[in-house]
Amino acid sequence: MAIKMLVFDVRDYEREFFDGEEFENFDLKLYDYCLNEESIKNIPQEDLDNTRVISVFLDSEITENVINSFKNLRIISTRTSSIEHICKKAAELKNIDIVSVNGYSYKTAAQFTVGLLIALVRNIIPLSKFLEKGESPDYTGYDISKLTIGVIGTGLTGAEVCKITQGIGMRTLAFDIIEKQEILNKTNVEYVDFETLLKESDIVTLHLPYTMENKNLIAKEQFNLMKETAYLINVSRAEIVNIKDLYEVIKNKKIKGAALDIRTCDSVNSKCKKYADKTHMTLECYEETKYLKELAKFPNVIITPHVAYKTTDVLEYILKNSIRGVLDCIKGENKYKSC
Fold this sequence. Notes:
This protein is α/β, with parallel strands linked by helices. It has two domains: 121 residues, Rossmann fold, CATH 3.40.50; 199 residues, NAD(P)-binding Rossmann-like Domain (Rossmann fold). It contains 15 helices and twelve strands. The strands form two sheets. The chain has a seven-stranded parallel beta sheet with strand order 8-7-6-9-10-11-12, sandwiched between helices. α9 links the parallel β7 and β8. α5 packs across α8 and α12 packs parallel to α14. The longest helix has 19 residues.
């Protein structure tokens, strides 16, 4: 008997994958939208009763209510490394396995980081608009090999950034709770304390998983420690940098520029403003998105929609390994199990 599996947040390239592969052991249903407490109301009761596996992306919110809506759910597969969008406690109470995909994007995220670095320091984005403006702007850049980069977080991605910047010839500083001996053995990276990194770096780049402890890790106080000629790069999570404070330092030219591969909120829309006006509440995500849009107007700011990981190789890896993880879990193997 085929295993009923519902797949949410399905993009076009993913649909091609699921249509093209042979899933003889699965009864698949694909949905373009994400799964949350609203969208689950559209799922037929028959599917809620019989589904054994759901596959989601980061935009889905798998709350306790969502989990409890499924009567026979056994596996939650997320096509991400993070599981923060899933209520782990509710899954554990019902003996539901959580399967994630790890280690897929550190090289591509590091490459994207260095691409942003070069674009910032050499002013590539504003220079590329000279035909549109009918003039050649005078944007003089810097020799990157003569700059100091500060890498905050030396996990897989941060370590790869260290490796690439060392190859370019940059002085590379690093900060982490635990110093990685392999980095010290194979590179000339210098581990320093947090304040020293901020004070001495020409580029500060963030490569941290988001936790409540590092929310607003970079805010007004930290910006005041940085050079006025320094750049900030964040390809981690939006919450790690205080967006309002970043806007203020960019506007007042307290740092040289910034590149952000982030989304403050995936669902900000006109309803958010109406709700905020009606309740007289300040919605943090809505306010942050407004500041992000203002930041995007500055020529020395680059903003991309959290796509540092996104290459054809990585996307294929995520899809194949998410299915492999589900199959391993069904067989009782825990190789990809993250709960």
